[in-house]
Amino acid sequence: MNTPEALAAALVVVNVALVAGRSVWNYPVALVAVAIYGWVFAEARLYSDALLQGFFFVANLYGWANWARSRAQAGEVVVERLDAATRAGWLLAGTAACLLWGTLMHRYTDASYPWWDGGIAIASVAAQLMQARRAIESWWVWIAVDVASVPLYLAKGLWFTAALYAVLLGLAIWGLIDWRRAEGRQLRVALA
Question: What is the rounded CA–CA span in Å between residue 55 and residue 51?
């Protein structure tokens, strides 16, 4: 049994459940989880995922401040929606970043599955940034990340992490549904 991996997986489940419920308290849990996962992924030679944890650490600090500000101003964490042009920009930038990152990992490291791992890492960066900005579209990207991650982690023998991403898939679906409900309530209040 890989105890650090199991601990990190448990913390991520708690974190994502708190995110789905729009609780600002997800952020301290996330900071501990990503620190542990950084080490786990480096040991597994999944360098994109290992570096991603450092990004997640910084992004979680940003998200914590943004969500706390939203809660202080509105009394809750307000859900937002990206406009069509912004969504298209995220898609184009994400695709270009995936190609670039996968190329770098393939050419300059001994990374396992550099394109697959790199694509998941870049999509995770986009999802994390969108989520820090409270964009509901982040859940769609997280769903795609979760679907792609399970077979990768199974291929690397990271059983807890593969199971984690299966659970995260369910939590991402729950988060999308819950955030849509919150968005609807916010719209009704704004129109009243």
Answer: 7
